[in-house]
Specification:
two-stranded parallel sheet; 15 helices; globular; Zinc Finger, Delta Prime, domain 3; Helicase, Ruva Protein, domain 3; 323 residues; 3 domains
Amino acid sequence: MQRNKTQVIEDLNKDLSAIYSLFADEAIQLIDLADQIIHKAKFDGFTEKETYVVTKDVDWSFLESKNENFDLFGSKKIIEIKLLGVGPGNKGSKALKEYCVNPDSNKLLIVTGEGLEKKQLNSAWAKALEENGVMVVEPVLNKNSMVGWVEYKASSLNLNIDSQAIRLICEKNEGNLNGAIQELMKLSLLFPNQKISIEDLKKSIADGSKFGIFDLSNVFLNGDKKKTIKIIESLRAEGVQPPLLLWALSREIYNLYKVVEEGNTKSIYGPKYYQDLLSKRANEISIRKIKSGLKDIAEIDSSIKGLSDKSPWQSIRELAVKF
C-alpha cells in the first residue's frame, strides 16, 4: 500500500512491514525515513545489513532464500536495494516480483529509488512492491514546497529558525536540497539552543564556508586527491555529516559507471562542462575500479547506519583517494 512519510513513521511504533519501497527525485529526500526504518529493524533484531547498488550486471540471487544458512537463533538481515536513475531491468523485475509473492521472514527488504521516470513506478515490479509492502513516493519539491521541507529538516536538527530565515535559505539554495542541509548543519553549530533570526543567517552567509558540497564533486571528478581530502576535512569541521558526503561521491561514481557502460553522457543531466568532465574522467578510469567503488559505497552506507565497525569518515577518505 502507498503511504506518506508521516504515516510510515507513525506505523513504525507498531510493527515493521516485510517490504518497503521509497522513491523520490533526490535520494536525500529519503535518507531520514530509511534510517528510521533501519533503526526500528535493528531494535527488532535485524543484526545484519547488505546494500546492493543496481547495475546491469548485478546478480539478483541475493533475494533467494535457498542460498542462506541461518543459524539456530534465526539470523535476521536487512536487504537494501538502491536504484539510481534506472529500474531493476528484466532480471531484477522478475526477481522482485517473485520475492514479493513469498517474502522471507528473516529478511527486511528496503528498495530505494531516486530520479526514476514515472513509467518505472507504474511497472509490474513497482506494483508488486506496493501491493505486498509499504510504498512511499515523495513529490518533487518546487519553490513553495521546499519551504516546508526545510522546516521539517530544521526541526529534525532541533533548530528553531525564524520563518524569514527559512525563506532566505530556500531562495539562496534555489532547489539545491544538499546546499540547504549544509546551511542548516552550519547553523546548528553556530547557534545551538537558541532562536535563529534572519540576521543570524545573514551573518552565517557572510562568514560563509570556503567549500561547498558541489566543490567536493567537481574536485573529485578532476582527480585532485589532495584537494578532495582538504574539502572533506573542511566540510567535516563545519558539521556536514557522512551521509551527505557519501551521496555526493556516490552520485559521481555512478554517473561515471553510466558513461563507461553507455559510451556517452546522453543519460546524464547537467551542463556541458560537467558532461565533458565526466567523459574525460571516464576515459581515465577502469570499469573494474568503478565497480569496486560502488561496492565500497554500500559498505560505507552500512558503517554510517551502525551495522559495521568501520569508521565512516576514514572509509569516505579512502573512497575519495581511490579515484
